[in-house]
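task queued by scheduler; priority normal; single chain, no ligands, no partner chains; default sampling; output format set to structure tokens
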Amino acid sequence: MSNAEATSEGNATSGETVVVKWDEGWGIQEAGRVHSLLVEALSGGGSVCIDLEDAERVDTATLQLLCAARADAASRGIDWQWKGSSAAFERAVEQLGLGSALGVGRK
């Protein structure tokens, strides 16, 4: 089971940066919880930062949630940032052709 968590620099409702830390793997089993983390991160209107430094397992369901959350952030003018990366994340994004949708990889 994953240990994914959301931590914030400040408070999600104060408009400050919310950091969502990806611990190990977010799979389909965690999709509901990941969705809740992303909704909470976007609720304050401040910046959102996804910390990928510990991402070991990446699946399609998680990437779909990230694509939707990033698009929602963009439509609401919320700054979206990535911190770090992992080989697993980069490989999955490339295999699924989601670099443009996620704003990562080759430009």
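post-processing summary
- The mean pLDDT is 85.
- Residues 60-75 form the longest helix (16 residues).
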